[in-house]
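FORM 7B: Structural annotation worksheet

SECTION A. Query
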Amino acid sequence: MNVMSVQAAIIFELDNQIVFTLGEWLKQAQKSYNAQLQLLNVPSGAPPEAPRLLFSAPTFSAHIGLNRMDIFISIPDQVKSSIDSCLDYCYKTSIVFAQLLFSDALKYDWCGIITTLNYPNRDKPQPSLKNVEKIMPYITKIDSKGRDIASFNLHIGFKEPPFFKNITLNGYEQIQIQIPADGNAMLRQININEAAVEESGVSILVDINNIPQDPKGAFEDDFSHVIQKNKDSSKSILDELNLGGILDD
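SECTION B. Predicted structure
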């Protein structure tokens, strides 16, 4: 198992002047984080959650809208095989940055943590849907009647007060595309269906948020609790989906 991505979603009270509210603070944060700050030219009718500001640091990037901030963590390779280590790294990387925003400037509403877990096929790599065929009997009673699967995406949500848990499962594959280095600068047409599959397997997304929690606590406390809930859920996800012993943990 490898943790492929960790995303923190933090929702706050609508601020139509977000660029002015955070502009000067983010300029100062640029220096502290050795980051780049980009103001996006967003159409006036764009939804509030659409990013208006991009803050890109070496260890994370933050997409900031009028009522939402998404922090995308750059996970070090040495911790990708450990759910605990990845989520500890997420917490340490994002909490200080987020705390500064919610100390004065913004009014926190709710938060969530989304992890993507990849379970590679340890045998010869094969198309992603072949990996799904292997697990279908354990998670669904649908009879394919000998038909080839053309697509598969399982999404299910549970209410586990004070949290919502959303689980998405599908197949994945990583392909290798080789472009001949013959010095020909002409545009080439590449058929990805003929590309070699380097790695494939099953991908499980675990999304935990505290929307049902009432009342909400302080941001720091809620964020810590959501992190812990995601840890517990991610570590037990195979058993929850009846896939313990079927996929390699």
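SECTION C. Observations
Residues 83-103 form the longest helix (21 residues). Strands lie at 2-12, 36-39, 53-56, 60-64, 68-73, 108-120, 154-160, 163-176, 196-209.

SECTION D. Sign-off
Analyst initials: ____
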